Amino acid sequence: MSRNxxxxxxxxxxxxxxxxxxxxSVLEAIAKIQKFSIRSETFDWGAGYFLKNGMFLPKDGLDxxxxxxxVYFGSVGLPEVDDTLPAKDYTFKVRTNxxxxxxxxxxxxxxxxxxxxxSEKPIDFVIIRENVEGEFVQMGxxxxxxxxxxxxxxxxxxxxxxxxxxxxxxxxxAQKRRKKLTHITKSNTLINSLTYWDRIIKEVSLHYxxxxxxxxxxxxxxxxxxxxxxxxxxxxxxxxxxxILSDLxxxxxxxxxxxxxxxxxxxxxxxxxxxxxxxxxxxxxGKNIANPYGQIWSAALMLEHLGETVAAEKxxxxxxxxxxxxxxxxxxxxxxxxxxxxAAVIKNL
Length: 349
Ligand code: ATP
Ligand code: MG
Description:
Elements (H helix, E strand, L loop, with lengths): L3 E9 L3 H19 L2 E6 L4 H7 L7 H6 L3 E6 L14 H8 L4 E7 L15 E7 L3 E10 L7 E7 L2 H17 L3 E6 L7 H13 L6 E6 H10 L6 E4 L1 H15 L6 E5 L7 E5 L16 H14 L2 H16 L13 H11 L1
Parallel strand pairs: 1-2, 1-3, 3-12, 5-10, 8-9, 8-10
Antiparallel strand pairs: 4-5, 4-11, 6-7, 11-12
Bound molecules: adenosine-5'-triphosphate and magnesium ion.
């Protein structure tokens, strides 16, 4: 198998321009150690690109990306660019067109990082968020918005195909982990879409008798993330709930800046895309203070996806050593800069 990887780099906006190069320097370092090669090309797409060109990526942007093995992405968004129409947006386009229907968002304990929870018990679970349908299909409209009868409607669409494929992915993942899957729902009030979701997940669960499967309502789930996060192994959830739960997952780790993620096309018909869970954080951009750990973790997830498992593990060990040594950014109560964190991780490889 060829161990030459073609990586498209899309730093995006804000802190993406700082943490993506930091993360890429770790990738280059591990490639040397593990003796594989990376060829990369960088694209300046995002909200900044939109201000100049009227779109987030060029018309042939997806065709260009398609030729790569994976996309290493930062984040898009600038305060002066309206992001209420995500269908136009870079992230939405890539996720849907490349059928990245799995959003893989792990949550774990970082050694040496203070977290806001009372419990000291280790946390180690993965949120699997359905990434292309559900509440985010953008079907609906505003009707007579200026009149007294005005209304705004968004329709959620959950398809059998869409639920089955993400559920199979999540159950297979649980088989490789602690064999427990909790699916998050709100079928006591969303009586059409989420009862269908529950039903199909139960059907899929029959193929995985070795995985313990239970369900939890989203409201109860948020409480449990805070009170008993150690009970979770694989958390399977919808697009909207997954969006919200991932920020909570980042917060219970100690900072949003700690979360890495993958937008995965399991069939590998298209490249998958790896990015931190947070946004472009324009409020702290350009100061070398952004936390790059989530971005570096995303590089490890990308290598795992490409089959470089040992390299991925080495990055995770080096991250752990660095936080343990107290190399912490401002959001974690330290004073290390973005570049200093990357240098520490590289040294610990
Ligand atoms: P999006 O809509 O793209 O998710 P957002 O509006 O939710 O973006 P973020 O950009 O994620 O917002 O930022 C939320 C807060 O978290 C900001 O105060 C930001 O500074 C902080 N933050 C986010 N990422 C980091 C990071 N890597 N390091 C330090 N602070 C961060
Ligand atoms: Mg956000």
